[in-house]
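Reopening this one. Same input as before:
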Amino acid sequence: MTQWLEILDQAEQIRNHSPDRSARMKALVDHLWEKLSPDGLSWIGFYLDQPDQAEETRLILGPRRDKPACSPIGLHGACGKALLTRAPFIVRDVRELGAGYIACDPLDQSELVLPCIDSDGSAWGVLDADSHRLAHFDLKYQHNLTKVLQAVGLSCG
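Same output, byte for byte:
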C-alpha cells in the first residue's frame, strides 16, 4: 500500500507542475514505469481517441513505456471496449480474448485498461497496462490506478 501512496503523491505533484495534458501523460507513464515495472508491469501507455477516424484505426499511441506498441489500433480490442463502455477492463488471461486481442507483445499474458474521462463525461483515451504474468491485475490494482489517474487530472471517471 505504501507504494501506491507514493505514486498518488507524485501524481498530485505532476498535476500541480504540468498544466498540459500531454506533459502530465508523459510524466505519469514515466513514474508508473519506474515504480511498477519491477513488480511485473511489462508495458504502460496511453491510447488517444481519434473519433473522426475509421473504427479500425481510431486509437493512436500516446506516451508509453518501455517498448514500441501497435498503432493505430481499432475499437475491437480491450482498449476499444474500455473506451466505448467508459468502464475499466481487466483481462486476467489475454488468451481468453481470442480474435479480439491485439497482441503487440506475444509475451503479455494479462492486461488492465482504464478509460480517461473528461468532466463532461466524454472519453478521450485509455491507459493500458500489460504484464507478462498471468492474472497480474485485479480490482485492487484497478482501484489504485484509477485514483492515480484522477489525482493527476487525466480522468474524472
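So the earlier flakiness isn't reproducible anymore. For the record, The chain has four helices and five strands.
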